Amino acid sequence: MKSAALFVIFLALAIFLATEARHLHCGKSLTRFIHKVCKAPCQNEEDFDFATYACTHFITSEYVRKQCCPNTF
């Protein structure tokens, strides 16, 4: 019984990681993701190409929040 519960927890964690943190976001996908997280366009004022980074690295909603709308939440 304990191994079945452990398996379910592991499976839930794997699904979360696969859906939340394992997407490359480019173009319209990135725009939609930023709007979903921040409810506004990205407000990144640093000299950092966030779009290129997001298109080539896996990013999470927490990373988007930190880069694009840190003062919103």
Automatic annotation (TrEMBL):
Bilayer-crossing regions: none
Localization per Swiss-Prot or TrEMBL: Secreted
Keyword Isomerase among UniProt keywords: no
InterPro entries found in the cross-reference section: Insulin-like_sf, Nem_insulin-like_b-type
Keyword Disulfide bond appears in the UniProt entry: yes
Record-linked Gene3D superfamilies: Insulin-like
One GO CC term, this protein: extracellular region
One annotated GO molecular function: hormone activity
Signal peptide, first to last residue: 1-21
Keywords: Disulfide bond, Secreted, Signal
Pfam name, any one: Ins_beta
Domain of life (superkingdom): Eukaryota
Segments forming a coiled coil: none
Family that this chain belongs to: Belongs to the insulin family.
Name of the protein: Uncharacterized protein
UniProt source species: Caenorhabditis brenneri (Nematode worm)
